[in-house]
Amino acid sequence: MAIKGAIVIDVERCKGCGVCVSVCPKQVIALSKNVNVKGYNYAEMVNEDCIGCASCGMVCPDGVITVYKAKL
Amino acid sequence: MFNEEIVKPENLVYKKTDVLTDVVMHYCPGCPHGTIHRIIAEVIDEMGIQDKAIGIAPVGCSVLAYNYFNVDFVEAAHGRAPALASAIQRLHPNHHTFTYQGDGDLAAIGTAETIHACNRGENIIIFFVNNAIYGMTGGQMAPTTLVGMPSATTPYGRRVDLNGWPLQITELVAQLPGTYYVTRQSASTAADVRKAKAAVRKAFENQAAKKGTQFIEFVSTCNSGWKMTPVQANEWMRQNMFPKYVLGDIKLEGEIVRPYNPEDSKVIRDLVSVK
Amino acid sequence: MAKELKLMKGNEAIAEAAIRSGCDGYFGYPITPQSEVMEHLMAEMPWEKTGMVVLQAESEVASINMVYGGAATGKKVMTSSSSPGMSLMQEGVTYLAGAELPCLLVNVMRGGPGLGTIQPSQADYFQTVKGGGHGDYQLYTLAPASVQEMYDFVFKAWDIAFKYRNPVMILSDGAIGQVMEKVYVGDYVPRWTDEEIAKNAPWAAFGKPAHRDHNIVTSLELDSSKQEKHNHRFQAKYREMEKNDTLYEEIMCEDADYVFVAYGSCARIAHKAVQLARDKGIKVGLLRPITLFPFPTQPIKALAQRVKGILTVEMSAGQMVYDVKLASEFKCPVEYFGRYGGIIPTPQEVVEALENKLIKG
Questions:
Q1: At residue B275, does pLDDT exceed 80?
Q2: pLDDT at site A55
Q3: C97 and C174, same domain (yes or no)
Q4: Which DSSP helix (H) or strand (E) runs through C326?
Q5: What is the pLDDT of residue B274?
Q6: d(Cα C170, Cα C153) in Å, to the nearest integer?
Q7: Whole-prediction pTM value?
Q8: d(C-alpha B125, C-alpha B131), whole Å
Q9: Which residues pair with B25 in a beta bridge?
């Protein structure tokens, strides 16, 4: 049984500051090449290594990250 | 990319609290104000005191904080938040009145209100966000700007002969008998956020027990004013701000736990390294 | 209501009325000649009688911002000061007006400018009714002429302040503040309960219950189109005050050839001057503005159409005279007489001024 995490990012509210990218212990997050409606390169998940630690959610200044965790 | 089996309500571990509104914050990308707002809102949520909380917004970047906190809020004149809070808490002794102020608001124009509210031991919480610069007006020197640190009004770096020394007001208010809990926190990493949240919780609990003034400084960044990326600004803060504005508790339960010593005043006089 | 007769200073009457009118909080800083307001409050210990909060602040700046804080939560709060202190408070006053907060301010005027003197004056008329702080705003301004009115106007102030969501000023002077007179005081009016505040001040920031959105008290509006709408609303409110709540008193104006216009202490002096002039066979009346904003423009206009001249009597270098001239629409000559720098004019001087400036002139 493995602990797996997942994050959901409200990309339209994301300002692309990259603080979440810098604190993720598993390098799960990167800034997208695409932009949201405001022109920010929003954050997105780039692999499935998320452990649901919520570090990204805790440092996100705009509260746009929701974190889930499950035993699979 | 994510596993849809994981994203289910029963697996939720972290989401924005409802004690923050859904209004998009006007802060610059990466600005710690949003994080600090959320820490305070989460504690209000977890303690179930939304109906008892009254916030005071300052003048400065967080002038519009009242749009983001889903609690009753009063917007103060520049520097006067502790005076408003003193009156409100005395008139509503079972409520939770807190101010949210920046360095210019609290440590320059509002120094008298800050010192006297702390000295009277008003049963209020003062949240002090120190990013060593005036963000809203475009990055001018603040009372807490470090020696050598450039700003819009010290383009060559803060010079002591012109501008005097940075003000360590948190150490100063800790000396006053009215303060019960004085601590310095930050919010740039998950670990720091956890510690800061515990400090905020302690402050609200002390207030519920009517212990006197609770004073929490957040050492913070202003990546726009500092002209750095948010991630670079966090790193610069750790390298240059933390040695001078040392994190941790200064006063606990009315007792000073980290006395101010001559070394501290020597350190604050050091020039910062500017790239 | 049971009435009790007391002998009090004007300043003490303000304090006594505060306690008895259900005031929730007083925040102030000592300054001559109004220090008895806070001294009387502290001596009476109203926190034990009615639960009223009294706090000596670190400055007038802090005092007015404590009033701002308390008023923002729907409480009946007040401060008092004298001219130099009131100048310091002007920032807070404009914020109170901009955030539409009911509260009571008392200015027991002394002579200026600067530190000036501690003797009585009326030289803060412009500061009070023409602004003081920045922006387009008005204070509903009551001008008491007796210790009884110092007492009564505190009660009146709460009604007006909450009716219009606007700060109310009692503009007094060192003479009315310091003089001792008999005062009828009434029963204690209870302070509002939390439920009454929620009903009477539903806009206030007293803690967000689950059933409503969060309340925000602010004078900030970055969107100019919305700010202009606020300004329109403020102006409409001031026009309502003019229409419904202008107060004045006319004494012996029916047959008058000449009229004095004077308020506060000067109205008492002018009243005596009316009698002296009539003893000499000059038919003089007195119009006493009780509210300085809204100003009794209509009655002055009506008088100007039928009298030979109007003389304002002021303890200033001539401030209210401008409003009287505007109100008269220049239908008759309007002159000013005053003493200042802390000097109170005598009734004889007033009659002489009438003779020299209007009758002989």
A1: no
A2: 97
A3: yes
A4: helix C320-328
A5: 66
A6: 7
A7: 0.96
A8: 19
A9: none
Tell me the pLDDT band of C3, cut-offs 50, 70 and 90. confident
> What does the radius of gyration of chain B's CA atoms come to, in whole angstroms?
18
Best CA proximity match to C314, nearest among C288, C282, C277: C288
Go through the domains of chain B in sequence order and give each one's CATH number: 17-269 (3.40.50.970)
Of B25, B27, B190, the CB nearest to A58: B190
> Is the confidence metric ipTM above 0.85 for this complex?
yes
Residues C156 and C257 in one domain: no
B29-61: per-residue pLDDT in tens? 999 999 999 999 999 999 999 999 999 999 999
C74 dihedral zone (left: phi>0; alpha: psi -120 to 50; beta): left
CA of residue C336 relative to chain centroid, distance: 21
State whether C189 and C275 are in the same domain. no
Give the C-alpha separation, B164 to B142, whole Å.
Answer: 11
Model confidence over B140-182: pLDDT tens digits?
999 999 999 999 999 999 999 999 999 999 999 999 999 999 9
Q: Residue C69, Cα to own-chain centre: how many angstroms?
A: 21
Neighbours of C, requiring at least 3 CB pairs below 8 Å, are B
Query: Which tokens hold the place of C280?
Result: 């000499």
Question: Which residue among C167, C198, C229 closes a domain?
Answer: C198
Residues 6+ apart with CB under 8 A from C319: C122, C123, C125, C126
Residues in chain A, overall count: 72
CATH classification of the domain holding A15: 3.30.70.20
Gyration radius (Cα) of chain C, Å:
21
Q: Return the bridge partners of C310, or none.
A: C259, C334
Share of chain C above pLDDT 70, in %: 99
Q: Do residues C264 and C156 both lie within one domain?
A: no
Instruction: Find the domain containing C149 and state its range.
Output: 4-198
CA distance C66 to chain B (A): 5
Cβ atoms within 10 Å, residue B257: 13
Instruction: Give the pLDDT confidence of B217-274 residue by residue, as tens digits.
Output: 999 999 999 999 999 999 999 999 999 999 999 999 999 999 988 777 778 888 887 6
Please enumerate in sequence order all residues whose Cβ is within 8 A of that of C156, keeping only pairs 6 or more positions apart, or say none.
C142
- So what's the pLDDT on residue B2? 53
Number of residue pairs across B and C with CB atoms under 8 Å?
Answer: 126
Chain B, window 6-35: residues with a beta carbon less than 8 angstroms from a chain C beta carbon = 21
Question: Which of A44, A61, A66 shows the shortest C-beta gap to B14?
Answer: A66
Where a domain ends, among C182, C198, C214?
A: C198
Question: How far away is chain A from the Cα of B37, in angstroms, using its nearest Cα?
Answer: 8
Note down the domain range covering A45. Answer: 3-71
Please write down the HEC assignment for all residues of A4-65.
EEEEEECCCCCCCCCHHHHHCCCCCEEEEEEECCCCCEEEEECCCCCCCCCHHHHHCCCCCE
- Is any Cβ of chain A less than 8 angstroms from the Cβ of B18? no
Check if the beta carbon of residue A58 is closer than 8 Å to that of residue B14: yes
Under DSSP, is residue C86 helix (H, G, I), strand (E, B) or coil? helix
Judged by DSSP in three states, C307 sits in coil
